[in-house]
Design a protein that fits this description.
- With 304 residues, the chain is an alpha/beta fold.
- 31% of the residues lie in helices and 25% in strands.
- It has 10 helices and 12 strands.
- Helix 3 links the parallel strand 3 and strand 4.
Length: 304
């Protein structure tokens, strides 16, 4: 079954070209089923690229999903037109009048800034608090995961000596966890950040369960004991060339970045890049939607 998105969203034509089934509002209205309501709080500056990455993964399930894109009122986006936001997004204030089966809070390139200094921090905290009672399961990604762990559990991030960029393998800690059903014992995760969450901080908290970790990158996956919050510090949604584009961007800015590790063929940025994580990404999002949202959320959305 497809995801339902606005027929004018730029991602729609790209997904259609990739033979990914998307549905317009008009066609969805003819189907007599209760679709899942998923909100994406998109904090990334490259909003259209992030939309496409996440929609591609959410569409690869047998479920019909209504997507709501959310923009932060207290932040001015510099890399996307205001007309795009006004046409396809709702404001964060509008979230508080609705309930959702699932919510995704994305990463953001602000991990070197103290949480409280991020210009939309208070607004994001209100959304995270609201989600605890009005969203059945929330998936926090990268900086979003760090923000959620800090706000809900007081677990802080730690600044690294330099940017951690590349493809790193994580080890399954909870192989019987439904979220990781079908995963290999070690699985690749694209990573791009300046901070990390320490594994021991997750293990020391009796409200959290550690699911996967890496000796290089720290905690990869964790969840709340009630299954209502999932925290992932990597970017399984990344396209094959996303890290290459980030590397080139940092080079152009004169930041003298380290080349992404375990990424370019023969560690040569002139060589092609091949995805090693695409199947893991599809499996992860399919498991999340099936076992943590669809199988558990009330049939009547108002009962959340």
């Amino acid at each position: 079954m497809p995801i339902k998105i606005d027929s004018g969203l730029p991602a729609r034509s790209i997904l259609a070209d990739e033979n990914i089934f998307v549905m317009t509002s008009e066609r969805a209205a003819l189907q007599d089923i209760r679709p899942l309501e998923i909100a994406i709080v998109n904090l990334m500056p490259t909003k259209e690229a992030t939309e496409l990455q996440l929609l591609r993964l959410l569409a690869n399930t047998p479920l019909q999903i209504n997507i709501t894109l959310v923009n932060m009122d207290g932040h001015v986006s510099k890399h996307v037109g205001q007309d795009h936001l006004e046409k396809f997004y709702i404001s964060s204030k509008e979230v508080f009048g609705r309930k959702f089966d699932g919510m995704i809070i994305t990463g953001a390139p602000v991990e070197q800034i103290p949480f409280e200094d991020v210009d939309y921090w208070d607004e994001l905290c209100r959304i995270m608090d609201y989600a605890k009672k009005n969203v059945f399961c929330t998936l926090y990604i990268c900086w979003g995961a760090m923000a959620g762990l800090y706000h809900h559990y007081g677990i802080n991030k730690y600044l690294l000596q330099g940017k951690l960029s590349g493809i790193y393998y994580s080890k399954l800690i909870a192989p019987t966890e439904p979220l990781l059903r079908g995963f290999d014992d070690y699985f690749p995760v694209p990573t791009s950040r300046y901070t990390q969450i320490r594994t021991m901080d997750i293990q020391a908290n009796d409200q959290l369960t550690l699911l996967a970790t890496s000796a290089v990158t720290g905690m990869t996956l964790a969840k709340s004991k009630d299954n209502r919050s999932i925290f992932m510090t990597g970017h399984l949604e990344y396209d094959t060339d996303t890290l290459a584009k980030e590397y080139k961007r940092d080079l152009d800015k004169g930041l003298n970045p380290h080349m992404p590790e375990n990424y370019f063929t023969n560690d040569n940025p002139l060589n092609p890049v091949y995805s090693t994580w695409r199947s893991t990404a599809h499996l992860f999002y399919s498991n999340w939607l099936n076992y943590y949202v669809y199988q558990e959320t009330p049939y009547r959305l108002g009962d959340i």
